[in-house]
Structures are given as structure tokens and as C-alpha cells.
Specification:
The complex is a heterotrimer of chains A (318), B (525) and C (325). Chain A is mainly alpha-helical. Chain A has 13 helices and 4 strands. In chain A, the strands form 2 sheets. Chain A has a two-stranded antiparallel ribbon with strand order 1-4. In chain A, β2 and β3 form a beta hairpin. Chain A starts with a helix and ends in a 5-residue tail after the last helix. Chain B folds into 3 domains: 240 residues, Rossmann fold, CATH 3.40.50; 176 residues, Rossmann fold (3-Layer(aba) Sandwich); 72 residues, no CATH class. Chain B contains 20 helices and 22 strands. In chain B, the strands form 5 sheets. Chain B has a 6-stranded mixed sheet with strand order 6-7-8-3-9-10, sandwiched between helices. In chain B, strands 16-19-20-13-21-22 form a 6-stranded mixed sheet, with helices on both faces. Chain B has a 4-stranded antiparallel sheet with strand order 2-1-4-5, covered by helices on one side. The longest helix of chain B is centred in the middle third of the chain and has 16 residues. Chain B is globular and about 70 Å long. By secondary structure, chain C is an all-alpha fold. Chain C is 75% helix and 2% strand. Chain C has 14 helices and 4 strands. In chain C, strands 1-4 form a two-stranded antiparallel ribbon. In chain C, strands 2-3 form a two-stranded antiparallel sheet. The two termini of chain C are 14 Å apart. Classes of the chains: A mainly alpha (318), B alpha/beta (525), C mainly alpha (325). Chains in contact: A-B, A-C, B-C. Chains B and C meet through α2 and α5 of B and α1, α9 and α10 of C. Chain A: Keywords: Cell membrane, Membrane, Transmembrane, Transmembrane helix. Chain A: InterPro entries: ABC_transp_permease. Chain A: It is found in: Cell membrane. Chain A: This is ABC transporter permease.
């Protein structure tokens, strides 16, 4: 293979990373603060909430399904963790939220995995239902953590050796999720269900359980994100998680995980989410208005997915 | 019924070739179709019938050769092009939109409209009604197609032939999902078309139908033209010989083992797809399950494996009464099912060979839920060697493998759990001759190692060649069972045709009076 | 196998009632909802209030018309809420520069143009419409924020907002436009080549291709219609409010999908019509209006709607299961 075709092959396989590196070089050349460890950690810290949710949603997407309820779920769980912190203390509040996240995921999983309803509509319905449940729980009021000195602040605000705790939580969770997806029986069945559900059932695998568990994981990951969120804000509003479902999905798609299911990985999701963070951060450092990043995100999503698809298909146009 | 003179052919097929990666699907095929002729195309699965149809209907472009249509050389750029020029394919899977009306479906893509694109429904309905009435059908053209029965939906497709004034109508296995009375109606319609001077190409596996309604029969084998016979002057034996065209024993390998202890027996198994199915299979034995598509063979296999709900029946596993298993339990008991459709049911195409191989037995390759890569690799290597699978490495996705190698991975997947009973549903479908032979040899080897094997196939020579015993299914029932010298093509055909009372028996089928299949067998044996 | 496939394609064996229910269950829901609220509140079944319901329904309703066109093709458009906001902002923001009607026209053009862009990207790239319009949702919303400078824009000439007060009896201009558009597009679906092709493309794309239908052009047209209608809704909103908030229409795309699906149009394509969509939109609006009349808190409304949607899905599932038997 000559050199130019080797380059083409590299771009095809890792086009996203190449484009990302070019972006980083361009921004670094124009902003001295961009390429610093402090700034990098800052970006990852800012993306840790979206990132946590995305870890769970990745499982769901690989089974070939959607979870649009995570934004509302994030709101509800954040409100609950903050409120329960005041009511029963931080320890029990953490437990409640983690269990609560799994229960909410299980409801999705039951309706989608076991009853076989359409995932898009079920999670949309849950989005609405959980918004209502949040208002019912909070009575419409914002909640704040009364005890400002609580150790609960650690999850969102603490640092260990100058590394923000949310970054550590996110990266550790990503490592665990990656292990689960790549190395375990469960992970294997997630890919199998998304790749070919019929063949998976013909292999004696209960695909319903796999789908159910993927949604439970999505709920659990959202609970983790809610803990970081509550801890960082030390309070919660009733709209705090609005729109997260779509940002998360954008990150997952940007990483190259296909919405058809059967392919994708945790590291790709992490990459996609962090890239979104860097685009945001880089554009701000270059002095563009905040919302220009959304325009750029639009362009990047279309370009990345299109090129990915074109490379798999062998030609750019369908 | 007489064959038309060859000097006025509507369609001449001259030396048509078509190659797909790895397969020469059509190799210099030439024949003529006369005006007002019903012309059958027969051949085993994979003989090239479907490819030929697709070439004629504009779905595939041929690599070589010529189509001469109405005396002019033609090449069709698209299905619509072929349709407008007068060649229409009636698909086995109907190409209708259930939400549209009958009339709209008939004229799909060629609706009469005014200048701004508003449908002239009155004209549309009148035209459609005329087309349907010409075929003797009373279907209301304003009905939504989704509200019609399958047979009537098929009539809508056929009405296109009338509507587009098609000179050549191609039927691809049209009776696969029809009941007997519906079949009779279809044959009447086909004769109606013939009366109007249309030419009909009729593809079917069912010899009784072919001898009932066709004028001439063209035989394909392995993509090559074998000859054209006048139906009235030939018989099933001759056509079958042309289809097979080779000495059975040279190609097929029957296991040399003697059947041992009984492994599985089911009695009076019933479901929504079949009834009162009783069969048994012994260690070291190959049981053939023969029947036409839709006879309920796959459903029986899937039920034994637990993929389908059983209404009643008893199952004995190694002589002990056992409840019907779920797939997971079936695998644990030692039942393997190599399903009919490799791509839909057999493999996860986006996974590699290793992952596909171990998929039914994940817990055997894991420690506390964590996959042990070395164990997986060991099995992978073992079966790649054993089955001689050609891959570029353990990471190659099965989607990028050839059909034969994919099928070998399906076998590997179902063998590496060391089953006691293996059910193979159409194991050589869509596979080239070379790989077929290897798979037949392999099946024999499995029985010789003491496995009980059930092979399902609609290819008669295959089933006869590999089985110790053949059970014949028709319309959800087991209608006959043959062993030893009685295991002949004639008997199988008779057993299948037996339950199908085709209207208007013609010369070809008149030779076979409606008697019990076993009586036929006795009379000839 | 073939027999099974066949069975699910034909509903010939179903009793007439089941067949009717399968297509029209939304009207039963609507009737029950209206009956319940009429009993529960004396204010519900008044001409005035019903007019209000229609006006409230109109915005989601107009979005839902375009969504139905796209969904019958088996596609989806998540960007309608953002497109609405952009047209809303352009119609108000450009008034001072180029005059009222040119500004309105610009808003409309932007919506149609973005729809055209979405459709073109989808058919040219072969990407899932969910991904393409998800990107567009984010990007167009960003565009709105950049254009408005993150502030709410106000009309300078308040006579603009008087258009919203035009009414015909209890029917406001907004409601009239909604009903007119719905009827017009039902006519398109039922009577024109394009409309009939929509079903063929959504249900059996191979048959459509065999019949020579230009599938790419067809889909681009429907996405353009969807974008243009989102702009119409945005412009009507600007007349009603006199302001353009950058967050206008946020998550309305989700409500729109809910309304269309509730009506009975299928996400898989090939099935549905504007009557169903009108039914779905009205049911949502009646629920919302009725619950407010009863002074139920906001959260009940959200929860009822979520539960309602899942109920409708379960019902659909139940009927199709019976159909498969």
C-alpha cells in the first residue's frame, strides 16, 4: 500500500479523530489558554453530566432503541437528591436516587423490552410524565441544599490532586461501562440484540431481558449524573435537565454509534461528548458568541455521520 | 392445449449471462417464448430461475447476451421501463401498498392526472374496473388493498398485466400462499390471459401445477439452459432428470452409520401452523423432512427448538417424557437448530466469526459473567480448521464473508456446543455446488459420529441423497414416510401432490390417480 | 414464512368494527374526553371555550400537518420547533428593516429552505432522518439565538398583532388557518399524485421504486412542506405574541410527534392521514384545556398526557396482536 492510500485508509477509519485534532491545532494556534491541562480538565468537568448520561444511553442505542426520557429523569432525580439530602441526609439520599434511577429505567425497559412498545414514543411519554412527576414532587418550587458544608458537595465541586471529582467519577464510570460492554456476557448480548434481534433469539438469548437491563443502566447512569448535578449546583430547579436528552444523543451520534444499533462503543461516546465540549470551549475562547457552537455542532454532526456512513458504504452519496 | 409454433416468438432470450460475486447465476441461457403460451421455468433452488426473472423484469442488467422482444433487441433500464414495454413480474411477495386503493395499486406510478397533479379518480376507477372485469374479477377498485385477502391482492397484481397491456407476464411461485380454491381461480385467470394472447412465464416447484397449465417447460440447472420440452409430450420423470442431471450418489453422501437409540420423539404435536405431527429420530440417523415451501417444515423445526408456541403434543427426549423446551433449554438439552435464513435468523452480520460462533453458549466461555477471550479463540480456531472456513482473521465481520463461509460459521455456532440432535433447515440454500457437496459430506460425518440429524429441504435430490429416512410434509401434516428402496423421487412427488387437488387434471397429472401415497409406493415397488 | 408475512399484510379477516377501530380510535378518545370535561366543568362546552381550544391547538396542529406528511413517508422531523422559532424571530426582527410582509415572506422562505436542506441531506446521504433533523434542531436553535442576540425581539408596530384578533365567530384567524391547511393537505393526500405516492413510498419503497416514482424528489418535497408549515406556525405565533423569544417552540417537536402518533399515524410510515392528525391534536388540546378549566395543577396535565400516550400505544398493540392472529 502506498503512502497516500494509507492516509486515506487512516482518515476513513479515524476521520473523526483527525478532524478533531485539526480543530484543536487551529484553536491552540489562536488561543494560548486552550492547550493547557487546566483547561482540558475544565472541559471534561463541564461535560461530565452529559457524559454520564451518555454512557447509559449508549447501551440503549446499541440495542437499536432510543431513550428520550433521560432529560426529564435528570431533573426529577436532581430534585429528589437535593430534597432528600435535606430530609434524610446525604447518604440515604444517594441511595434513593440510585435506586430511583434504576426503577425509572425499569419502567421504560418493561414497556419497551417486555411489552415491545415503540421506544421513541414510550420514552417521549415518559419525558412528559416525569416532568409532571417532578412538579408534583417539588410543588413547583426550587429546592436548595440547606447545609452548605455537606460532604455531598464533593461530587460536583471537590478535587483530588487538583483533578475535579466529577471528572474522576465520569472516567471511572466510563471505564466500568466499557468493561461491561466489551468484556461481559451482557455486553455481548447488547451488540447481538442491536445487530440482529431475530438471530439473537434463535441463539437462545432472551433479548427482552437485554433490552430491559439496557434501560435500567440508562436510568442508573442518569442517577449518577443527577448526583453530580445536584452537588455542583447544591440545589435544583424544575427545568434543570431540559434538553439533555438531545445533547446526549448528539454526542453519542457524533462518536459514530449508529442509531440503527449493533455497533458503537463507550470510548466513541466519550470522544463524541468530549468533542462537543471542546467545540464549545474552543469557540468561546476564540471569542465567538455562545450559541455559535450550536451551529458548529449541527455542521459537525452531519459531516461526521455522513462521512462515517460514506466510508462504510464505499461512496459518499446514497 | 398445444404449444405454439416457434416461428412467432414474443420474447427471445439469447445467450443471457449474469455473474454475481462468486457465482455464475446465468450462463448462456437461450430460449423462446411464443405468443399466447404458458411457459414454465423449472429448476432446483439456485438453478438461476429467479435471476432470470429479474433480468427479464428489468431488476438486474445482464452481463452478456440479448433480449429480443417483439422482434427488436431491448434492454430494460428499470422495472418501470420493462413494465411500460409490456413485461410484468408478479412477485412472490406482493408489491402492493395496502393503504392505497385497488385502482391506485394497479396503475401505481402511471396514474391519470390533470395538469396540476390531481388524480382523475373516475377514469382511474373505470379503467381499473375494466381491467379487473376482463379477468373475470368482481373486486371493487375503490377498496383499500389492505382489506383484501391475499388471493385477491394477487389478483390486483395480475390486473396490472391487463392494465399495462403486458404481453409477457411472469409469475414467481404464485401459489405459495394460496388455498386450493384460490389456486383454481388463479389458474382460470392465467388461462384467461392466455386466451387474450398474452404470454406467461410460470415459475414453480410444483410439478402438478406445471403439468396442469403449461404448454412448454424450460429447465435450468446451475445457471445453464438444459432444454425445452413440450408439456404434452413429456413426463415428470424426464423433467426431473433434466433438473438433476447427474448421478445422485456421486454428489450426495449418505452416512454409513446404522441408527442407534432414539434421541427425540414427538407425538401429535399441534400448533397454529401444523397439526398432529409425529416423528422420531435416532442417534446416528439422518431424517429428511421434505415438503414444499409453506408446508410447515420450518415451523415444526422451530417448534422443536422452542421458538414457537405449541398447542398440544408430547415430547420424549432420550425416551423420557419432557416438556417442550424454550430455546435456552433446548440448547442446554443438546438441540441445535441451523435456521432457514442465514442472514435473518442465523448470524449477527455486524459481528465477527468468533462472536457469532460462541453466541448460543456464552456462559460456557465466561467466568462470573466475564468473557474469557482465550477460550473463545480456542473454539474459533478449532472450528475454522475443522470446517475449513476462509477468513482474513478472527476480527473479520461475517457480513464480508462469502455465502458458503457464512453458512459454515452458522454450522460452527451450532456444533461447538456438542449437541445430541441437530436440525438443519435448508442447509445449502443459496450456496454454490462445491460448498454444497462439502456440507453434505459433513452432515454424513455428523451422523457417523452418533448425532441425530434432521435435514429439511425442498430440493428432492438433496433430501434423498443424505437421508436414511424421509418424512413428507404437506399443508401442515406429515403425509408419508419412506425408507430404503421406497425413497424415490416418484414417491415423494406423489406424496406431495396427493393432497393438492388441482382443478382440470391435464395429461401430465392424469397418469397419477388420486390414491394413498403408500399405495402408489407399493404399486410401483 | 410467506404465509405469515401475508397474514399481517391483509386485514380481510377482521370484523368491520375492529377494522374501523384500528383506524379511528382517536375519535373515541376525543369523544370520551369531551364528554368527561362537559360533565366536570360548565365552562367547557361553550362556543367560546371550544374556539379557544382550537386556537390553542392550532400551533402544534400546523406543525403536526407537516409532520404527518413526513411520517407517512416513514421519516421524522425533529427540527420543526426550532424552525418555528426562527421564522418567528425573522418575521419580527426584519419588520423594521424591510417592512411587515417582506419580513413574513422571509420567515416563510427560511422555513421552506431549511426543510429543503434537511430533505436534501437525508436523501443524498442516506442518513437516518432522526440524526439529520436532530442536528438541525440544535443548529437552527443556535441560529435563532445568534440572530436574536439571545434577547426577546419586540414588534415596533403593534398593528401587526391585530391580525391575530381577526376572527370568524368563535374561530380565530389562527384556528381557521390550521383547519384550512389541514383540509388542504388532506385533499393533497387523498386526491393528488403526490399524496397518493406518499403512502406508496412509506409502505413499500421497493414497489414505489419499481413503479418509477422519484423517491428522492418526493421526500425532499415533503420535508420542504414540513419546514414551510413550521414557519407558518412561527409567523402566526409572532402575530399572536408580538414578541419573538429565542426559546419559542422548545420541545414542541416532541408534542407534535405525540399528537400525530396519538392520532394513529404510524412512525413506520405508510399509514395515516390528516383526519387522524386533527383528532390527535384536538385530543391533546381538549385534555390540556379541560384540565386547566378544572384548575388542576400543571403536573397533572403532563402526567395525564404521558399516561394517555402509553395507553394509546398499548391499545394499538393490542389491536395489531389480534390482527396478526
Amino acid at each position: 500500500m502506498d503512502r497516500s492510500s494509507a492516509v486515506i485508509a487512516l482518515v476513513r477509519r479515524h476521520g473523526l479523530i483527525v478532524a478533531f485534532l485539526i480543530f484543536i491545532v487551529l484553536v491552540s494556534a489562536n488561543s494560548p489558554t486552550f492547550l493547557t491541562v487546566g483547561n482540558f480538565l475544565d472541559v471534561i468537568r463541564q461535560t461530565s453530566i452529559t457524559g454520564m448520561i451518555a454512557l447509559g444511553v449508549t447501551f440503549v442505542v446499541i440495542t437499536g432503541r432510543f431513550d428520550l426520557s433521560v432529560g426529564s429523569m435528570l431533573t426529577l432525580l436532581t430534585v429528589v437528591v437535593v430534597d432528600q439530602h435535606n430530609a434524610v441526609g446525604p447518604g440515604l439520599a444517594l441511595l434513593f436516587v440510585l435506586v430511583g434511577g434504576m426503577v425509572l429505567g425499569a419502567v421504560n425497559g418493561l414497556l419497551i423490552g417486555f411489552i415491545g412498545l415503540n421506544a421513541l414514543i414510550v420514552t417521549l411519554a415518559m419525558l412528559s410524565f416525569l416532568q409532571g412527576l417532578t412538579l408534583l414532587y417539588s410543588g413547583g418550587a426550587n429546592v436548595n441544599i440547606a447545609d452548605a458544608q455537606s460532604w455531598f458537595a464533593l461530587f460536583g465541586r471537590g478535587t483530588v490532586y487538583n483533578i475535579p471529582v466529577p471528572v474522576l467519577i465520569f472516567l471511572a464510570s466510563a471505564a466500568a461501562a466499557s468493561f461491561l460492554l466489551r468484556k461481559t456476557i451482557f455486553g455481548r448480548t447488547v451488540y447481538a440484540v442491536g445487530g440482529n434481534e431475530v438471530a439473537t433469539r434463535f441463539s437462545g438469548i432472551n433479548s427482552r431481558w437485554t433490552i430491559f437491563l439496557a434501560y435500567v443502566l440508562s436510568g442508573l447512569a442518569t442517577a449518577g449524573a443527577a448526583i453530580i448535578m445536584g452537588s455542583r449546583v447544591m440545589g435544583a430547579q424544575n427545568t434543570i435537565g431540559q434538553g439533555y436528552e438531545l445533547t446526549v444523543l448528539a454526542g453519542v451520534v457524533l462518536g459514530g454509534t449508529s442509531l440503527i444499533g449493533g455497533s458503537g462503543s463507550i470510548w466513541r461516546t466519550v470522544l463524541g461528548i468530549i468533542m462537543l465540549g471542546f467545540i464549545q470551549n474552543g469557540l468561546l475562547l476564540l471569542g465567538y458568541p455562545y450559541y455559535v457552537q450550536w451551529l458548529v455542532t449541527w455542521f459537525v454532526i452531519i459531516a461526521a455521520v455522513w462521512i462515517d456512513l460514506g466510508a462504510k458504504r464505499g461512496r459518499l452519496f446514497a | 392445449m398445444t404449444a405454439r409454433p416457434q416461428d412467432a416468438p414474443v420474447l427471445e432470450i439469447r445467450g443471457i449471462c449474469k455473474t454475481f460475486p462468486g457465482v455464475r447465476a446465468l450462463d448462456e441461457v437461450s430460449f423462446n417464448v411464443g405468443k399466447g403460451e404458458v411457459h414454465a421455468i423449472v429448476g432446483e433452488n439456485g438453478a438461476g430461475k429467479s435471476t432470470l426473472m429479474k433480468v427479464l423484469a428489468g431488476l438486474h442488467a445482464p452481463d452478456g447476451g440479448k433480449l429480443v422482444y417483439n422482434g427488436q433487441e431491448q434492454s430494460f433500464t428499470s422495472p418501470l421501463d420493462a413494465r411500460l414495454k409490456g413485461i410484468l413480474l408478479v412477485h412472490q411477495e406482493l408489491s402492493l401498498s395496502p393503504e392505497l386503493s385497488v385502482a391506485e395499486n394497479i396503475y401505481l406510478g402511471a396514474w391519470p392526472t390533470n395538469r396540476v397533479g390531481v388524480l382523475r379518480k373516475k377514469k382511474l376507477h373505470e379503467d381499473a374496473r375494466a381491467a379487473l372485469q376482463a379477468l373475470g374479477s368482481d373486486i371493487n377498485p375503490m377498496t383499500r388493498v389492505g382489506e383484501l385477502s391475499i388471493a385477491r391482492q394477487q389478483m390486483v397484481e395480475i390486473a396490472r398485466a391487463q392494465a399495462f397491456n403486458a404481453n409477457v407476464v411472469i409469475f414467481d411461485e404464485p401459489t405459495a400462499s394460496l388455498a386450493d380454491t384460490e389456486k383454481a381461480q388463479l389458474f382460470k385467470t392465467i388461462l384467461e390471459l392466455k386466451e387474450r394472447g398474452r404470454s406467461i412465464l410460470y415459475i414453480s416447484h410444483k410439478m402438478d401445477e406445471i403439468f396442469a397449465i403449461t404448454d412448454r417447460i424450460t429447465v435450468l440447472r446451475d445457471g445453464k439452459y438444459q432444454g425445452t420440452e413440450t408439456t404434452a409430450e413429456t413426463d415428470i420423470d424426464k423433467i426431473t432428470r433434466m433438473m438433476i442431471g447427474r448421478d445422485l450418489d456421486a454428489y450426495f453422501h449418505r452416512a454409513k452409520s446404522a441408527p442407534g437409540a432414539e434421541v427425540l420423539r414427538v407425538e401429535k404435536m399441534c400448533s397454529s401452523d401444523f397439526s398432529d405431527v409425529s416423528l422420531s429420530v435416532h442417534a446416528g440417523e439422518v431424517l429428511g423432512l421434505y415438503g414444499l415451501i409453506g408446508a410447515g417444515r420450518s415451523e415444526v423445526a422451530e417448534s422443536l427448538f422452542g421458538m414457537r408456541q405449541i398447542r398440544s403434543g408430547t415430547l420424549y427426549w432420550h425416551g423420557e417424557e419432557t416438556p417442550f423446551p424454550k430455546p435456552r433449554q433446548a440448547i442446554e438439552m443438546g438441540i441445535s437448530l441451523v435456521p432457514e435464513s442465514r442472514k435473518e435468523q442465523g448470524l449477527v452480520l455486524g459481528m465477527n466469526g468468533r462472536e457469532n460462533t460462541t453466541l448460543p453458549h456464552l456462559s460456557a466461555y465466561a467466568q462470573a459473567g466475564v468473557m474469557v477471550h482465550s477460550r473463545e479463540m480456542q473454539t474459533y480456531r478449532e472450528y475454522v480448521d475443522l470446517l475449513d472456513i476462509r477468513t482474513s482473521g478472527p476480527d473479520q465481520l461475517v457480513a464480508t464473508l462469502s455465502g458458503g463461509n457464512q453458512q459454515k460459521f452458522v454450522l460452527a455456532k451450532w456444533l461447538c456446543g456438542h449437541p445430541k440432535l441437530i436440525i438443519l433447515d435448508e442447509p445449502t440454500r443459496g450456496i454454490d455446488i462445491g460448498s454444497k457437496s462439502a456440507i453434505h459430506k459433513f452432515i454424513a460425518g455428523l451422523a457417523e459420529q452418533g448425532l441425530a440429524v434432521i435435514v429439511i429441504s425442498s430440493e428432492m435430490p438433496e433430501i434423498l441423497g443424505v437421508s436414511h429416512r424421509v418424512a413428507v410434509m404437506s399443508e401442515g401434516k406429515i403425509v408419508a414416510e419412506f425408507t430404503g428402496a421406497d425413497q424415490t423421487e416418484e414417491n415423494l412427488i406423489a406424496a406431495v401432490s396427493e393432497r393438492r387437488n388441482v382443478e382440470a387434471p391435464e395429461e401430465g397429472s392424469a397418469e397419477r390417480p388420486p390414491v394413498d401415497a403408500r399405495a402408489v409406493m407399493g404399486g410401483q415397488g | 414464512m410467506t404465509a405469515m408475512l401475508g397474514a399481517s399484510r391483509s386485514s380481510a379477516h377482521l370484523p368491520r368494527v375492529t377494522n374501523w377501530l384500528l383506524r379511528n380510535h382517536i375519535w373515541i378518545f376525543l369523544a370520551i374526553a369531551i364528554a368527561l370535561f362537559s360533565f366536570a366543568s360548565p365552562f367547557f362546552l361553550t362556543l367560546n371555550n371550544l374556539g379557544n381550544v382550537l386556537t390553542q391547538a392550532a400551533f402544534i396542529g400546523i406543525l403536526a400537518i407537516g409532520m404527518t406528511m413526513v411520517m407517512i413517508n416513514g421519516e421524522i422531523d425533529l427540527s420543526v420547533g426550532a424552525t418555528l422559532a426562527l421564522a418567528n424571530a425573522l418575521a419580527i426582527g426584519l419588520q423594521g428593516v424591510i417592512g411587515v410582509w417582506p419580513a413574513v415572506f422571509c420567515g416563510l422562505l427560511a422555513g421552506a429552505g431549511l426543510g429543503f436542506l434537511n430533505g436534501s441531506i437525508i436523501v443524498l446521504s442516506g442518513m437516518h432522518s432522526f440524526v439529520v433533523t436532530l442536528g438541525a434542531l440544535i443548529g437552527i436553535r443556535g441560529l435563532v439565538f445568534v440572530y436574536t442576540g439571545e434577547n426577546a425581539l419586540m414588534v415596533e408596530d403593534f398593528s401587526y398583532t391585530e391580525y391575530a384578533d381577526i376572527s370568524w365567530g368563535p374561530l380565530s384567524l389562527t384556528a381557521l388557518i390550521f383547519l384550512g391547511l389541514a383540509l388542504f393537505f388532506q385533499w393533497i393526500l387523498a386526491w393528488t399524485r403526490h399524496g397518493r405516492e406518499a403512502y406508496s413510498v412509506g409502505d413499500n419503497i421497493n414497489a414505489a421504486f419499481d413503479a418509477g416514482i422519484n423517491i428522492k424528489r418526493h421526500k425532499i418535497i415533503n420535508f420542504t412542506i414540513c419546514g414551510a408549515l413550521a414557519a407558518v406556525a412561527g409567523i402566526l405565533l409572532s402575530m399572536r405574541l408580538g414578541t419573538a423569544e429565542p426559546n419559542a417552540g422548545k420541545i414542541w417537536e416532541l408534542w407534535t410527534i405525540i399528537a400525530v402518533v396519538l392520532g394513529g399515524t404510524r412512525l413506520q410510515g405508510g399509514f395515516g392521514n390528516m383526519w387522524m392528525t386533527i383528532g390527535g391534536v384536538l385530543t391533546l388540546a381538549v385534555l390540556r384545556n379541560g384540565l386547566r378549566l378544572l384548575n388542576t395543577p400543571n403536573y397533572v396535565e403532563l402526567m395525564v398526557m404521558g399516561a394517555f400516550l402509553i395507553l394509546a400505544l398499548l391499545l394499538d398493540r393490542f389491536i395489531s396482536l389480534r390482527m396478526a392472529k
